[in-house]
Amino acid sequence: MSIEIDTFDRIIGTIDGLPGVDKSRPATVTTVAPIIGTSQTYVVQTYKTEDGFIGFVQMIEAGHSVRIALPSKVTAALYRQRDALVVTGRRRRARDRWDQLDPDQKDAHAARLRAVRPTRKPKAG
After folding, report:
1. What CATH code is assigned to 1-70?
2. Which among 11, 24, 43, 55 could bridge 70 via Cys, Cβ 3.0 to 4.6 Å?
3. Alpha carbon distances (Å) from 102 to 47, 95, 98, 108
4. How far apart are CA 38 and CA 60, in angstroms?
């Protein structure tokens, strides 16, 4: 009788405990659908290897569970998307704040920025 090892177990078993591999503590998050009352529990853990980050997600709900190993290319894409969304949100909030300023305040901010930032020299050409 042979035991079949799934991808999740194979990957985590390969990297866990290796020198130079760091791991986070598992984080458990439970979500509940308010009207239906069903819940899902997620266990999330990240490993850092020389090649990048590998994410492990386990989802448990009534009747079944799913375990996924996210390769470093996938976690890198998630981090890039998160960073891009943070930048987009900051820009939008800054634009909203700017739009709420009265013209005198805008002029004062612009003058302060001009005083701090050096003017660009035209390119020689």
Report:
1. 3.30.1300
2. 55
3. 49, 13, 9, 10
4. 11
β-strands 52-61, 39-49 pairing: antiparallel
User: What tens digit of pLDDT does each residue of 64-115 get?
Assistant: 999 999 999 999 999 999 999 999 999 999 999 988 989 888 888 888 888 8
Q: Which pair of structure tokens corresponds to residue 35?
A: 């009207």
CA dist 2 and 116 (Å) reads: 70
pTM: 0.72
Q: Is the pLDDT of residue 125 over 80?
A: no
Rounded CA separation 13/55 (Å): 13
Q: How far apart are CA 29 and CA 43, in angstroms?
A: 6
